[in-house]
Specification:
This protein has 228 residues and is of the alpha+beta class. 16% of the residues lie in helices and 33% in strands. Strands 1, 2, 3, 4, 5, 6, 7, 8, 9 and 10 form a ten-stranded antiparallel β-sheet that branches. The two termini are 36 Å apart.
Length: 228
């Protein structure tokens, strides 16, 4: 395979590669196409947010939402990273990642075992959102990222809850996607070995919704849950 990043289609919007977004290995798997990046982000609701706290790296799993070219993360106003995003100048340097595992790639040799995956890495400065309208839109986006349509079928946060909730924004500027597909890449001399080789697909599934024990029986399962 060529040792270069996969370019976007001619004329397609793309993010500009930077030193931090060009991988040192398997560059042919990298993509900067905005449509590809957005699709990977929109298919997820869990991200990992990395930052440095008191000189040590910290990575936190958290929910997120996307609105256009911005990602939003929320948490308690007492959360250290969210506090730092509001007190640091110009904000908090972070690295946000999203990954989907699509298959376990089993090769004849242990060395060539791999995974089929889709991932996005975002570098940037996270800033606290203070505008009330943007905060509400961001919180709705985070809810709908996990369950599309849910924000309109739940009580919005009240004044007290909003006061206890911090929201940070990360612009999609320094971004890359990385994707692996296909089967194992066994060495030619291993092809005759008597070991099974191939791909075990991995998919995300949802079970049947279980109503809360105190739910009014007259309230049926909403249609949007059927589309998960």
């Amino acid at each position: 395979m060529p040792d270069s990043a996969t370019p976007a289609a001619p004329g397609a919007p793309a993010y500009e590669p930077t030193e931090r977004t060009v991988p040192s290995r398997s560059r042919e798997r990298a993509s900067y196409d905005k449509e590809t990046v957005h699709a990977i982000l929109d298919a997820a609701y869990l991200c990992h947010l990395g930052f440095v706290r008191e000189g040590a790296p910290v990575v936190l799993p958290t929910l997120f939402g996307r609105i256009g070219e911005r990602l939003y993360v929320h948490g308690s106003t007492g959360s250290r990273p969210l506090r730092a995003a509001g007190t640091a100048d110009p904000g908090l340097a972070v690295c946000l990642t999203v990954t989907h595992v699509d298959g376990l790639v089993l090769a004849r040799s242990a060395f060539h075992h791999s995974m089929n995956y889709r991932s996005v890495v975002v570098h940037g400065i996270a800033r606290t959102v203070t505008d009330p309208q943007e905060r509400r839109l961001a919180l709705d986006a985070i809810v709908d990222q996990a369950v599309p349509g849910r924000s309109k079928d739940s009580r919005p946060a009240d004044t007290k809850e909003l006061a206890a909730t911090a929201v940070i924004r990360l612009d999609l500027d320094e971004v890359s996607a990385k994707i692996r597909t296909g089967g194992p890449s066994d060495d030619p001399e291993d092809l005759s070995l008597p070991h099974w080789a191939g791909v075990v697909p991995v998919t995300r599934t949802y079970g049947t919704p279980v109503p809360s024990e105190d739910l009014d029986p007259a309230i049926g399962v909403p249609d949007y849950l059927g589309g998960l």
